[in-house]
Structure formats: C-alpha cells, structure tokens
Specification:
By secondary structure, the protein is α+β, with helices and mostly antiparallel strands. The protein is about 55% helix and about 15% strand. It contains two helices and three strands. A three-stranded antiparallel β-sheet has the order 2-1-3, with no helix packed on it. A hairpin with a 5-residue loop joins strand 1 and strand 2. Helix 1 packs antiparallel against helix 2. The C terminus is likely disordered.
C-alpha cells in the first residue's frame, strides 16, 4: 500500500465559463464544481492549508448554499410551485441552516481549543 503525499497548499480557481470560484489542493486536478470542465480555469489564490483557510472556505460554501436555496424558493413561489415542493424547499432550508450553525459551532470550538 503506497502512501499518498499530504497536501499543503489550497489553490483557489475561477472558471472563465461560469465565473464560479472553487478551491482544490495542489495534489488534486482542478475541475469546476458548477460546469464540471477542467479547462479555462484561472488560479486566483494560493495559500497554505490551515484551519482558518478551511473555515473560510466552508463558511463561504454554507452562505452560497443558503443563498441558492432562498433563490430557489423565491423562484418557485413566483412560478407557482405546489405545496409539496414548497414544503420540500422549506425543509431543505431548515436543514441547511442547521448544518450552517453546526459548522459554525464546530469551528468556534476548534478556535477556542487552539487559543487555550
């Protein structure tokens, strides 16, 4: 069993197609998480992998998820979605918010432990 080298750098890319930014380690091949293409990607930031860098990325992802769910809900209301679909979106928003709070709490405890 071969040992894989541990990543040390987080690289943030921006896709020229959809303008989405995403991060990968230096060991991973970059691929846009939206359009799933591997070309036309521009490196915009390179930083060491730290708990702060991971926290920042996760918080950005959580915020994007909430915004996307809110937009989906608003669009659905404008389109006249049915009660079942509306309930499903509302439940997804509650679960996403709970996840966001859980992640915030987890990082808060991690930061507190580091300071002690």
């Amino acid at each position: 069993m071969g040992s894989r080298k541990k990543p040390s750098t987080l690289i943030t890319y921006q896709c020229a197609r959809c303008r989405w930014d995403f991060s990968r380690t230096e060991l991973d091949k970059p691929k846009c998480t939206i359009c799933e293409k591997r070309d036309r990607l521009q490196e915009i930031k390179r930083e060491p992998i730290t708990s702060q860098a991971i926290e920042t990325g996760m918080m950005r992802s959580m915020e994007r998820m909430m915004i996307s769910l809110e937009k989906a809900y608003e669009a659905g209301r404008e389109e006249g979605i049915g009660d079942k679909e509306e309930i499903m979106l509302l439940e997804a928003m509650v679960k996403a918010r709970n996840l966001q709070r859980h992640v915030e709490k987890a990082f808060g405890k991690c930061v507190t432990r580091k300071k002690a």
